[in-house]
Amino acid sequence: MKHAVTVRNVEARPTAVVAATTTWREFPALWKPMLDEVWACLRAADIHRGCRNVMLYLDDTPRVEVGVELTQPCPLTGNVVSSSLPAGRVAMTVHYGSYAELGAAHDAVIAWCAKENLSRTGVRWEVYGPHDDDPAKVWTEICYQLS
């Protein structure tokens, strides 16, 4: 699948997240309980929709933040904390289709940055569009912060 990559300046976006330092091997088993905790916090505040899921990777350790874009104030409980997606210059693409194919979108951004001689900071994130049972209607925004 072809992924068009563009450079944009983005504003910070507030998030509610659970943060963790983990390993790439452990992360696949951790992200869903982390996200479930954020949604439990939102539902307790009577927020049931309108907050897109996000995963922010701060480095390759990885130090990660899993949660949602926060579109309205919400009391945060438990391990859920306030954070934000970073502001600044990013290389980005939008992936349409199965989450299992997200790696190709990340590879496309990395390759494009190398071709364009753009340095990445190591910080990157994914913002997920609304769920749909049809994988062709699923989209994910992928951003890599540029130096």
TrEMBL record:
Transmembrane segments: none annotated. SUPFAM superfamilies: Probable bacterial effector-binding domain. Residues 3-147 form the AraC effector-binding domain. Gene3D superfamilies: Regulatory factor, effector binding domain. It holds the Pfam family GyrI-like. This is GyrI-like domain-containing protein.
